[in-house]
């Protein structure tokens, strides 16, 4: 039977090991203490201990602020955790605390790290100005990360690395110098209903475990190993078999119902050899393209997204990629609506309206099916087929732009470009307008978005594009893209 302790308003500092050490089902209240400059963790919770850690200052430790491991639990609430050399809170070996309403800042590593089958409910914390990822999940970590503010970090907001899992829901991920979310598709993370904005690089970057990289730039490296007490091998025999906190099984990496806006590079960047679903997101006003698919040997499915006002094209698909674009609204981007080199691209039932380049740019050697879309470009072509692009263009409605030459362009006589049953609408006078009706402007978010804030943003962007006129604004933006690479 564990013992209960009460520790109130103490100064605990310069200890040769941990400041406070709980094990063997220890519990109690640890509140209002100043815990600093300890050689190991400020608070160490393990062996089924379950304390209440409340309103402490835990800072300037030589390792982590708080560690929870070996089936340790606990409620960690309203603490100030800052300037520790390792993670502010480190959860591993089936540690499963509730971490809420803490202020975790200016750490020299991650704000919160969840590794080695660590779990936990992490909610309503402010995590800012940390050197590594605001939250770093890898090696079997499977937390629920919900409703946190993760901001002003010197690397990425959230990192889901090798074998990391978890639910990342309803967080505000803002103004981090790296990516908003950096994740491996092989880990099957579920990223939903987050606001990801004003980060320095990509809003969401999806890479593949099979790229063979062991080290990552900008803080993607693993947290240092944890070796206190020398008895790690005993924990595996004591682990509880709790139910997985993810009630709904996830069989594919999922980016769903997020608002991804005003990030420095592409809103979403994909370089992956696993399947990925990108569904009902609002991807708006990012510094490069809305979505860049650089590698996708398995299918990347992009459905019911609003992709608007990005500084380059709405979507770019590179060579040898398999992508399906269905039910998206792609509006008012400063480059092309969609530009593809992919050898298996399906573009079906999208609204591609008001982009400054062509609605669709089909590049040489691409293979694209373009079916039942509504397409319009003010100055360029609705569809431009370059060189020996293979295409089936069928049952689309293509609106005329500002000049008489802006419906369809085919550079060479290409027998592999098949046009069937398309409808071309031309202006008869300058005052002519058309409305997107039957169906209304895409995406149709009402029945599919879970996050109310994302739904509101999607409806607002969609409303901007329901009327098509001959009005057009200035020229292209020439700012170069920013790249986040795997070394």
Question: Your description of this structure?
Answer:
Residues 257-406 form the Periplasmic copper-binding protein NosD beta helix domain. It is built from two helices and 52 strands. The chain is mainly beta and 487 residues long. It has a domain at 1-177: 3 Solenoid (Pectate Lyase C-like). The two termini are 50 Å apart.
Helix content: under 10%
- Please identify which CATH superfamily of the domain at 1-177 we are dealing with: Single-stranded right-handed beta-helix, Pectin lyase-like
Report the top-level CATH class of the domain at 1-177. Answer: Mainly Beta
Task: Assess the beta-strand content as a share of residues.
Answer: 35-45%
Structural class: mainly beta
**What is the CATH third-level topology name of the domain at 1-177?**
Pectate Lyase C-like
Distance between the termini: 50 Å
Round the mean pLDDT to the nearest integer and report it.
81
Low-confidence stretches are 210-247, 447-487
Q: What is the name of the CATH architecture of the domain at 1-177?
A: 3 Solenoid
Report the count of strand segments: 52
Using only C-alpha atoms, the radius of gyration works out to 25 Å
Biggest sheet, open or closed, and with what strands and sense?
A: 17 strands, parallel
**Count of DSSP H/I helices:** 2
Produce the secondary structure layout.
Elements (H helix, E strand, L loop, with lengths): L3 E5 L2 E3 L6 E3 L4 E5 L2 E3 L6 E3 L6 E3 L2 E3 L6 E3 L6 E3 L2 E3 L6 E3 L6 E3 L2 E3 L6 E3 L6 E3 L2 E3 L6 E3 L6 E3 L2 E3 L6 E3 L6 E3 L2 E3 L6 E4 L5 E3 L2 E3 L6 E4 L24 H4 L17 E4 L2 E3 L6 E5 L3 E4 L2 E3 L6 E6 L3 E4 L2 E3 L6 E3 L4 E5 L2 E3 L6 E3 L3 E5 L2 E5 L4 E3 L4 E5 L2 E4 L5 E3 L4 E5 L2 E3 L8 E3 L6 E4 L2 E3 L8 E2 L16 H12 L3 E2 L19
Parallel strand pairs: 1-4, 2-5, 3-6, 4-7, 5-8, 6-9, 7-10, 8-11, 9-12, 10-13, 11-14, 12-15, 13-16, 14-17, 15-18, 16-19, 17-20, 18-21, 19-22, 20-23, 21-24, 22-25, 23-26, 24-27, 25-28, 26-29, 27-30, 28-31, 29-32, 30-33, 31-34, 32-35, 33-36, 34-37, 35-38, 36-39, 37-40, 38-41, 39-42, 40-43, ...
Antiparallel strand pairs: 51-52
């Amino acid at each position: 039977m564990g013992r209960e302790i009460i520790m109130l308003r103490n100064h605990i500092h310069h200890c040769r090991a941990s400041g406070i050490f709980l094990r063997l089902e220890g519990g109690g209240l640890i509140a209002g203490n100043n815990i600093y400059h300890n050689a190991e963790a400020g608070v160490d919770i393990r062996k089924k201990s379950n304390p209440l850690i409340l309103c402490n200052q835990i800072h300037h430790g030589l390792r982590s602020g708080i560690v929870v491991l070996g089936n340790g639990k606990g409620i960690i609430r309203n603490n100030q955790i800052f300037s520790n050399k390792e993670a502010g809170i480190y959860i591993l070996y089936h540690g499963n605390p509730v971490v809420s309403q803490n202020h975790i800042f200016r750490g020299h590593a991650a704000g919160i790290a969840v590794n080695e089958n660590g779990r936990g409910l992490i909610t309503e914390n402010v995590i800012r100005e940390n050197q590594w990822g605001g939250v770093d999940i890898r090696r079997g970590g499977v937390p629920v990360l919900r409703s946190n503010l993760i901001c002003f970090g010197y690397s990425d907001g959230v990192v889901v690395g090798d074998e990391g899992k978890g639910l990342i829901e309803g967080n505000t991920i803002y103004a981090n110098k790296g990516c908003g979310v950096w994740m491996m598709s092989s880990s099957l993370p579920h990223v939903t209903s987050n606001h990801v904005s004003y980060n320095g690089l990509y809003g969401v970057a999806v890479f593949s475990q099979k790229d063979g990289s062991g080290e990552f730039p900008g803080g993607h490296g693993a947290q240092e190993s944890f070796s206190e007490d020398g008895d790690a091998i005993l924990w595996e025999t004591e682990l509880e078999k709790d139910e997985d906190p993810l009630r709904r099984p996830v069989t594919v990496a999922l980016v769903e119902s997020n608002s991804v806006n005003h990030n420095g590079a592409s809103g979403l960047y994909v370089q992956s050899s696993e399947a990925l679903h990108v569904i009902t997101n609002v991807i708006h006003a990012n510094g490069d393209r809305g979505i860049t698919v650089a590698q996708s040997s398995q299918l990347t499915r992009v459905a019911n997204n609003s992709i608007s006002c990005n500084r380059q094209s709405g979507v770019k698909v590179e060579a040898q990629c398999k992508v399906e674009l269905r039910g998206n609204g792609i509006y008012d981007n400063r480059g092309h609506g969609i530009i593809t080199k992919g050898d298996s691209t399906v573009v079906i039932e999208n609204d591609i309206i008001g982009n400054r380049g062509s609605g669709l740019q089909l590049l040489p050697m691409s293979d694209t099916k373009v079916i039942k879309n509504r397409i319009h470009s003010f100055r360029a072509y609705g569809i431009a087929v370059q060189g020996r692009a293979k295409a089936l263009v069928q049952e689309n409605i293509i609106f005329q732009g500002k000049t008489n030459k802006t419906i369809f362009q085919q550079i060479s006589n290409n027998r592999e470009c098949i046009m069937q049953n398309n409808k071309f609408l031309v202006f008869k006078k300058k005052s002519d307008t058309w409305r997107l009706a039957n169906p209304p402007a895409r995406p149709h978010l009402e029945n599919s978005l879970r996050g109310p804030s994302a739904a509101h943003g999607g409806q607002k962007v969609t409303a901007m594009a329901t009327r098509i006129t001959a009005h057009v604004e200035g020229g292209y933006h020439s700012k170069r893209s920013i790249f986040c690479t795997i070394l």
